[in-house]
Fold each of these.
Amino acid sequence: MAMLRHAAGSMKYFVNVNSRCTRNCSASTETFSDIPSPQGIWPVIGHAHLFGPTGPYKAERLTEAVMDLSRQLGPVFKLRLSGADSVVTVDADDTRTMFRHEGRHPFRPSFPAVQRYRQKRFGSMGIVPGNGEEWYKFRAAILPLLHPRVVKAYADRHTQVASRFVDYIQMKINETSSETINDICQDLMKFSIEAISVTVPGVQFSSLAAQSIREQDTQNIMNASTDFMEGLYGTLIGLPLWKLYRTRSYRKLESSHEVIYKVLESRLQGMKCRYMDSPEQIASAHPFLAAIFNNPTLEWKDIVMLGMETFLGGIDATATTMAMTFHYLAANPEIQQQAYEKVLRQDSSQEMSFLRACIKETLRLSSTAGANSRFLAKDANIGGYLVPAGTLVYAFNSVTSLDEKYFVEPLKYLPERWLRESSTSKGHPFASLPFGYGPRMCPGQRLAEQEMVILLAEVLRKYHLESADHTPKPVGMVYRMNRVPDRPINLCFRNRRV
Ligand code: HEM
């Protein structure tokens, strides 16, 4: 909801929003104004009341709200928010159309509070909050992160971090004399901090060390990551009061940036000095840092900003996805056994493809992003309606990925559907896109997948996972900035070798 409301406010980038589409839409018969929308458009707030205290929906359950609205209105409908109409679709063909009409520099809703703060404090904006040329400069610089050779260079260190996580679990078990670990997401955040630190700043943190002397640092980083997400979200929803004074959410943005800056800047400086002394060595051990240090379009302030974004981007979604994968495997022991057998077989290609399928299946059922969104760069036919350039479209990935039109038994955790020989996928390539798509897709996808697959193999090798809840219930997802589990995930780690 927050996302929707704010985005509608960003329509000032475009003109002609409500005009009739006339170009490239000749096959369509219906106009923009024919697109159905919920009844009751209130002055100023439009449809926002639907998600208010007296409305039928909860903002944190936006996916369920969109499912319900699409049952009433059809797969394509409009919502009026902040004085402009956005289009929502739950059809994977429309998702494809949206991405095919996103242009060379895709526009997503921006984060004006982050833009303002970063510009003022650091003189550099980074990738996430902006659009257009400014976005492109950073995007081009982060692209090496998607290169398989670059990602592979970190594989051994990811294995090392994963085995430290396994030891860390054992340490917790020994300390408490219990195999139960409550709220595993917190522990997985320590994993994801240590794992991303291998790439940026290139100096491995010891978040998972026993009695870490840096325990306070780790806690500060975890708090900063949460504050960053809450700050992004809080400055996006409601009235932009942060323009008048430093609201609580704005202060969270400030404090999280300060913590991460302090943790990263000096370490990046150190790596830069080492790079000057031995460029070949750094290039092979730290190919991503070498690429950004070498990039002539970046000043030092941009390099630090890019480092901050890579670091922050690497924490939250990775931890959530791993926690949900552990949850699904605990709830599906036969699939966990299958995964374990693949790990035992030590055939890395078989092992990897099944474990990768487990992660994909987790992201299909519980994606961290609810929707992919773009302002159309050109007129498009969305679900038979003429939608003009400049309109914001939300393609609800978290709805299409649960639709039986695209997936057999869509509510079941069936990783095999992602394997080539499977018969359980009807295979629409745009039905499940948890990392987005196109020139603006997640640049950390390959790195995150490598970290997660390696961790899964290491954990399964040592532990059998079980739910620690007496009556295991399904875990839903609620919207914060990313979607997160709606309750703590409590697990038993049973040592396989005992
Ligand atoms: C399970 C892990 C992750 C998931 C599910 C995820 C998901 C996403 C999604 C859905 C987007 C928006 C894409 C679009 O609009 O098309 C995105 C953007 C982004 N992600 Fe990730 N991400 C993950 C991990 C990471 C990691 C490890 C990093 C850093 C290394 C990262 C850095 C970023 C950045 C910088 C952007 C903004 C890209 C842009 O605006 O051009 N992400 N991510």
Amino acid sequence: MALSGDLWTELPAERRIFCSVLLFSWAVYLWEAFLAHRQRRVYRTTTHVPQELGQIMDSETFEKSRLYQLDKSTFSFWSGLYSEVEGTMILLCGGIPFLWKLSGQISGRAGFGPEYEIVQSLVFLLLATLFSAVTGLPWSLYNTFVIEEKHGFNQQVLVTIYADYIAPLFDKFIPLPEGELKQQIETMAKSIDFPLTKVYVVEGSKRSSHSNAYFYGFFKNKRIVLFDTLLEDYSALNKEPAEGEDGENEETKSKTKNKKQGCKNEEVLAVLGHELGHWKLGHTIKNIIISQMNSFLCFFLFAVLIGQKELFAAFGFYDTQPTLIGLMIIFQFIFSPYNEVLSFCLTVLSRRFEFQADAFAKELGKAKDLYSALIKLNKDNLGFPVSDWIFSMWHYSHPPLLERLQALKDAKQE
Ligand SMILES: [Zn+2]
């Protein structure tokens, strides 16, 4: 042990940096592989729908989703192994300095000498992107045309991008009409001193139900936004084209009751109670402060580290210290332990916040309504609902449905 310790300290600083980076990267890889292995065991052995979800998930859907996740997990085992080995080979064979030199030759041919570092950097970025596209292509083709074809799942990336980023730009915000729901919302806001000024509904929202309600605005001027998919009386799914008139009477309402999607008023209030809990407990502010502090710290450390020649030497840059390479080395390799720790802490924190917001809704007396609302809202995008606890703790910044239901159930019984 003493001998290996001596060997380690006798190594030049750049060798030690290089070895640490490589070892850490493998440590993270092995840890994640271990978690994925545990999660795969869950996919393999959980063959029945959990009791809590029996009403909203049939065993056929469950089995379909299970087999899909199993195949996906096996696939990502191999693609993950491949990319870890590839990354290691690139580092060991000096791929980064080689690509940098090549970029220099190309920009030199085009008439830009070494004094044009920015041109060389752009060529470098272009080549690196090209390289990763080419080496990644077979994997993504296999994923799309073999795995997703086989299971009839189609990720439809473009559709998702549209639903998540483009469609919201055209969202139509209309004020929530006067009525029972609006009054109840105002009463609840007042009871917890939430400075509510307006309530809006997003009409015809096509989003994949990532979010059902949120609030925005500064200081004493806050608005609440509800998505119409959340509201029973608003959801486009509940509107029948023949009876599109406003004068819908009680009779037709009760006829279509069974088909209705969305939440009852009490459930909407419970969901809002959760969202307002985030506000009341200061979660929003805490998140902003943390991210500001993090950026400050990163730039401070970057400024300190960028002058260290050993860092460049560790990756094969002995006589030049290009800024782009410095950014890459520091943010991608040197910060990676920090990033791993930070992202784990943020995940833990975010889950705590979610549970606290649920508990806040519970304190408002809404445990039962939140329970049924969560089940309704997750009906369509449940995926595979069971997960290994360490896997879930490491990866999910939002607690899985079953864990939330469990916490609410404990609360209900108290
Ligand atoms: Zn939340």
